[in-house]
Amino acid sequence: MARRKKVSLKDIAEKAGVSTALVSYVLNGKEKESRVGAETALKIKELAKQFNYTPNFVAKSLRSGKTFTIGLIIADIANPFFASIAREIENEAKDSGYTVIIGSSDERSDKFRDLLSVFIDRQLDGLIIVSTEGSADQIKSLQRRKIPFVLLDRYFPEIDTDFVSIDSYQASFSAAQHLLQNGFKRIGFIGYESKLFHMKERKRGVWDAMRQAGIKVSPGWTRDLKFDEVETSMYETIKSMLDDSQSIDSIIFGTYRLAINGLKAIRLLKVKIPSELAIVSYGQAESFELYECPITYLEQPLTALGKKAVEILLDRIENNKEEKIKLLMKAQLKIGESSNYSGKVKDHSILN
Predict the structure, then answer these.
(1) Cis link prior to 274 (omega < 30° from 0)?
(2) Which residues 6+ apart lie within 8 Å of 2 measured at CB?
(3) Could you tell me what percent of the chain has a pLDDT over 70?
(4) SS3 state of residue 300
(5) pLDDT reported for residue 48
(6) pLDDT by residue (tens digit) across 98-127?
(7) ∠ CA(310), CA(316), CA(320), 5° rounding?
(8) For residue 221, how many other CB atoms are within 10 A of its CB?
(9) Is the Cβ–Cβ distance between 55 and 65 less than 8 Å?
(10) Beta carbons of 29 and 41 less than 8 angstroms apart
(11) Which of 40, 209, 254, 317 is at a distance of 20 to 30 A from 13, taking alpha carbons?
(12) What is the pLDDT of residues 180-222, one digit of tens each?
């Protein structure tokens, strides 16, 4: 049985009645900059789909010296935030003719190093990186080797790099202010045991909001959990924060994963939300709206984060400008019932 001839750019161009170059512009996502009419671009895309056209990446790579592939290292694929933002990055990269290879470090510095080494060996055109603790030296090494990359979500203020992140300080500050305005005065914060800058900023935002309100912050109101011990230590952590002589009346969880495990512990402790304990989560999840008491959370602009990370990286690959782009986006507080309560908060010191 004879093999079916592979459709070429020339075939599509002849069928559309345009030049091969114009077809190339459209299928590489450059119709706008090449000023191709919307009707013509649509016709070319429909023909390419009709003929099941697939580009010859080998020839394309030889001509351009690129693989048209970028690597994405995320921290935890099980976290909906990282899973969602990976999809946004894939979609945005695809629109520009790039394929994304994804790896998850699971918040482990050794796995992060291994992934980075594999991606570099595969000679990808660039990297989008969610850093782990202890990865600063690897980031500096990428700079020395002039490998294009963008840091996502987490960055190192002492290293001059491109990054796209959330203003963690502003987000936590606004969440704490919201609780203060609703009458909560003893705000707890549960985060990870980490030296990463974004986690430090989330704590600092909560502390500063309380201090500006004239509240003396108790050391017991902040707890840091190890990443791999969240499930086993959350119950005792919250119980001890409620048993303390200066017991908390509210908690801001530093991540979605912490919030989910915290809510499980609060249910086991039979603590009522928000009359006995108010809750705010850093990071969103559809499940928050399904709780008996909808959860207040800080919504992060996932689409914008993914889009800008790809945009900056591709510009770095194409142009390699000296000036670094440092972009902080704002999280928006989505208020549910878990942080709204005007009654008197109960004393938890009698919990056993």
Answers:
(1) yes
(2) none
(3) 87
(4) coil
(5) 83
(6) 999 999 999 999 999 999 999 998 889 999
(7) 180
(8) 22
(9) no
(10) no
(11) 317
(12) 999 999 999 999 999 999 999 999 999 999 999 999 999 999 9
Residue with tokens 């008996």: 292
Whether residue 132 contacts residue 110, with contact meaning beta carbons closer than 8 Å, is answered with no
pLDDT value for 45: 85
Q: Which residues of 52-69 are buried (b: 16+ CB within 10 A; e: fewer)?
A: ebeeeeeeeeeeeebbbb
Residue 231 token pair? 């499930």
CB-based contact 128:71 (threshold 8 Å): yes
- The values of phi and psi at residue 133, to 5°, are -65, 140
Tokens 């969880």 correspond to 253
Q: Confidence class of residue 60 from pLDDT cuts 50, 70 and 90?
A: low
User: Using N-to-C axis directions, what is the helix angle for 80-95 and 302-319, rounded to 10°?
Assistant: 50
**Structure token digits, residue 47:** 């023909």
Q: What is the CA radius of gyration of the chain?
A: 25
CA distances from 31 to 26, 37, 67, 69, 247 (A): 5, 8, 21, 21, 61
Q: What is the token pair recorded at 238?
A: 């919250």
